[in-house]
Amino acid sequence: MKAAEFKAATRMAWREAKRNRWRSLLVVAMIALPVAGLTTAAISIRTASPSFEERATGLMGRAELAIMGFSSDDPALTDPASYQKVLPAGTQFAVQRNLAGESTLGGAYDYVNLTDGPTIGATVGMYQVLEGRAPNAKNEVAVHPRLLERRGLEIGDTFVVDEPLLELTVVGVAVAPEAVWDPIGLLAPGSLAGYEDTAVNLFIDLPDETSIQDAVAKIQAAQPVSTVDRRSIVELSGATEAMGASFAIAALALVETGLIAAAAFTVGARRQLRALGLLAAAGGEARHTRLTVLAGGLVLGLVGSLTGVAIGVVGALLVQPHLDTIAGRVTGPLDPSPLFLLGAVVLGTTAATLAALTPAKAAARLDPTDALAGRTAPPPPPARLARWGLAALIIGGVITGWGTVKFESVVQAIGLVILMGGFLVLIPTMVKVLGDSAHRLPTAGRLAARDTARHARRTGAAVAAATVALAMPVAVAGWLAGQERSESAIPALAEDHVIVQPGLSADGSESTLVDDLLSAFPGAIAADLRQASWDPAAYPVLQEMAGGEAAADWGVWAMIPGIADDFSDEQGGPLMIADAGLLTALHAEDAINELETGQIVALGAMRPEGTPADLQVPPKSASEEWTQITAATSDGPATRFDDGWLPAFVISEERAAELGITDASYSSGTLIRLPSDLSKPKLAEARLLATAYEGAAVYSLFDTQPSNAAFKAVTFAVGAGVALAILTVAIALVASESRRDQAILASVGAGPAMRRKVAGTGGFLLAGLAGVLAVPAGFVPVAIIQASQPNPLPVVVPWLTVLAVAVLVPVIAGVGSALGSREPSTRRMLDPVV
């Protein structure tokens, strides 16, 4: 190719673009849309993705080593004095204690993760004070902004924690940079010393040029502990990338760009047929024709890519204020690397040019006479494409499943792309089916369906691009539905359950909240929840083991040997003393007889099938060992609840007394079984009653269910918005090409209403094709991945999202097309083919 030839082809392409400004603008828009989306996503992801050092600093400050998660019951393991002698001079230590705090707010629980890690020294970078200052006294706290917002507090106010009981002065607003959602309450160093159930971490900052391996060996020689370093803690946190879904999304995004550009240039090549015919008639060779079409792709691709990058940068600026929330970490300023922006322009331009390659080759093969007459070669038979599509579906499904089973993310991604490609290749067949069925439709539908089928190459790529966009919300909704079904397999509570912490009356007397709730919900049943404990009176050595405390609670755990679960070779759970009232409240009234005959009743998922339960019995004296007894069990008919409040096993009071088991000194609350399933208005009513009592709270199944509704709604809105934008431009391109059809309709007396019906039906059919294909295109890959996992997730059809994609989006597209239809001008009707 000579430079003069390229220059001439480029000049022709530019003049063609200027001569058809409206069509060129639509083509540029179709190219700019995916480039803008990719630019916004890439800049946001680049900004939100932490470097290894940022991630490690957020998790363990500037320390090189950490001893994590030991209980404060064994203080020597996390005592700096245990290691100071063996580690080199200059080593810095930081002790961090963590404790889950609970409060009640408006009759509901309000949780705060208390930590007393220092903000200087080895743990610098683990916390960030946004306003005010870090606490430096035991009664001070810096609190997560959402906790302050929820309670209506400001710096200087008092922040109350009920368990443990703390009244703290707010001196600052703080977050954990790598866990921005974590509701932290940052205390002064050492503030949690002495509290029970406190997890203690020790961070160790070694002097420069100190060997970490030597330090680990010296630590383990001093104490039998395991350590984590910066690399291992990042890996444990799940910060490793290269997931198959990420690869697949990136690959599909590139496919999206190519599809949209292909739709644009298929239209463009058809509009240039006469110009190309004149070029051939004037002596131009096939390569000149091919070069002219490719130059059009290059020119419009470059303009579209530049426009898309500019829009993408603006989009990233709009996303930035919400980026911390989306990423779950504190992000820095936007990072739009000039090299990346240049790459985005090159990528978009290249994709557009390559998309113009197929129409360029087709145009080069046309006879000049056919080109001057506006005739094009017939498309490949849909049946042949359909066979390729079905083969791709099968092969892609197998590869995706194999990659999931073998944890090969790249293989999984390749399978997903092949699978999606199979669905997209089926589009011409769907268009043919639509055209063949046109005679069954009303007049407007028949005209729109035949026009769509007649210009299948013109509309097929746009439908494919919209299919990819609409498949995203279907895939996300299907994945989340499977997770929700899996999580609800063992529910935390029944739908008619509430657990009540009664609190105290305003005058400090005993609360009557339970009675209030029983009165508000006639027919409800209440039962106290008390963990079973070995009786210190029957086993006095327990008091000695508890340090001489007057009352020691030693929870009883029942085990069923020979029945494994996901975590242990034996299934087990807490034992609770029960009567007929508690079994009724637990939906296990059919097991009352077994309970009263002295059997331990295993609830639901334990499935002992008559296997006796093992109980570890404490010794009678300090010189004896713990022993094991076996007690008869019964498989209770109730559903197993798994929230930590309700028992896995129950035993009658009489049988418990025989074994030396009694109620613990504390209560887990009161379980109330309502006469019907709990609704959110009923829950609000119950919590309103609880606000009259200090420290009272009402806990329900709603509190255990993570809400994915907002995420699914945003995903659907984004996918539907992108698809509608693509379809809008595609429909506009179709309209710009349909002047002959519009003129014919006008010439035979069709009024504006009929033209709007045809336009609206055309938009509905295009979006309907995309929606119908998007459902399997989004759901099938997710179903294959879910079913192929080592612990398969349930495959659940997200019907609401399916209906929205298959019905709502086409209706919106149809209404928009009808409203956007305009009456053709007199010039168009007189000269419809120019």
Query: For the CA atoms, what is the radius of gyration?
Result: 35 Å
> How would you classify the helix and strand content by structural class?
alpha+beta
The low-confidence parts are: 238-248, 565-569
* CA distance, first residue to last residue: 31 Å
Into which percentage range does the β-strand content fall? 5-15%
- Overall pLDDT score: 78
Number of strands: 23
Helix content: 40-55%
What is the helix tally? 30
Shape descriptor reads: globular
Main beta sheet: strand number and arrangement?
Answer: 10 strands, mixed
What can you tell me about this protein's structure?
By secondary structure, the chain is an alpha+beta fold. The strands form four sheets. Strands 1, 2, 3, 4, 5, 6, 7, 8, 9 and 10 form a ten-stranded mixed beta sheet that branches. A seven-stranded mixed beta sheet has the order 18-17-14-15-20-16-19. Strands 12-22-11-23 form a four-stranded antiparallel beta sheet. Helix 17 (427-436) packs across helix 19 (456-487), helix 19 runs antiparallel to helix 26 and helix 26 packs across helix 28 (752-788). It is globular, with a radius of gyration of 35 Å. The two termini are 31 Å apart.
